[in-house]
Amino acid sequence: MMSNVTARLMPRGGSLRKPSALGILLALGQVLGGCAAPADLGVTTGGAKDIASARSVIENGGVPDPDSITVEGFISEHSIPIMPPAGAGLLYATATVAWNQDFDGFAPLATVQVGFGTTLDRENFHRGPLNLCLVIDQSGSMADPIDPRTRTPKLEAVKVAVDRLLANLTADDRVSIVTFSDGTAVRLEAARGNDVAAIKSALDQVTASGTTELVDGLRRGYETVAAHRSVNRADRLFVFTDVLLTDWNEFLLELFYGAIDQYAAQNIGATFFAVGTDFGHDIAFKLSQKRGSNYFFLSDYDRIVSVFDEDFDFLVTPVAYDVSLEVSIPFEFDMAAVYGLPTGGSFPHVFDLSVPTLFLSNREGGGAIFLRSRAGALVDFSKENSAAEVNLSYKTADGEAVTLPTIRAALPAGLSSRAEPEFFHDAASRRGVLLLNTALVLKHTCEDYYGQYGYAYYDPTALNRAITRLTEFLTYFDATAAGLEDRLSESSRSLSQERALIARLRSNIGGG
Fold it and tell me: Could you tell me which CATH class the domain 129-316 is placed in?
């Protein structure tokens, strides 16, 4: 059965200082597949960027912009494995729950962790052939350095990325190259994936100059892919650019998204690589809502290596389409905050997540959604309490509609209303709570540092509060991490790395 599934896939190639009481972590792709035991692949929406830029600032002695730190981006760099249910199909969802007095919490926090995974693993997965077009920004700003330390021009970094990409291609793949600045140019059409000389010779002609006409380049790339379509190959663009989409006006963004939608309807996917200039969380999320699209931020050499050496086969492989996930919260709990899901500022008790495309992921991490609420007076802790109900449906690459049975997460009877002692369903629940709080502490510390005006104004009270928060959190971190495995996979960051990051940020602020 599994080999048949694989064969069908191949052709398509809130404030922490006073937190609320119920937290729901929806970890898209933070699980390992398998029916009896976890496998070694995950799934991702492709829209949750990591926090590489923030990490770089901290490691170089600075304090990052709080907007560069998101819960989703932080969680996406970690594995939180959970056991798939018996009889799990291609995709599955599962839910566990924790109950504890959380860091800096006003009241105890219940965290329901909803995992979303796949039963595919490396043994039964093989990437299908690609009809790939590299759409490369060659505008003048691509001569700027990708990072301040090496001062490597962004365009040279793109050529490094293409070199890593070529190591993953075969004679069955086809590669075209389109460049854009003031105008567009087709540098290469439908070369074999193993024709390294032809591909690199085309890149040798590319130098940086002129302005950025991204929409024109995007459309030229789509047209080039469409000209070389084959039923045996999956069609995809790789777009490399440093354009700052957040600075675009609504008209240009409408043209940009319109081009993606037009060709997505023809099953031509697109992967966007932000080269040294982060698109930002909002743009990344919107791209994930486009059928067949995903996003990566290329910040430095290590990031380029990890994306193209470790993730390439998976970032070009959609595993499911039209995914619909519904999470219902009982009215005995009062919603207070949501992370990772557009809510328009309101927090209802039923949340719907629609994802046009899910991709395979080398890392078990993916997008993340947290929903928080207070345990109301009607919650009777002497009885079992339903914390959430989860419903999942999707379509396979073949168009088969699948609806899974409702999954219920419950707090067991007999818990203390004060969470003394605390309760974690398993080690994954404990890890999820710890990582959620780590991401929020990083973000809120930077908010204290920069203050309400968005720059460091050195308010002694705010700085002392930031240092105190980090100092106290290190104690919380050690207590919560006790007994947890430090690193769950080679592609995941370790808990000790995150503790060191907290300690370094405290030192940067002036906390010793």
Answer: alpha beta
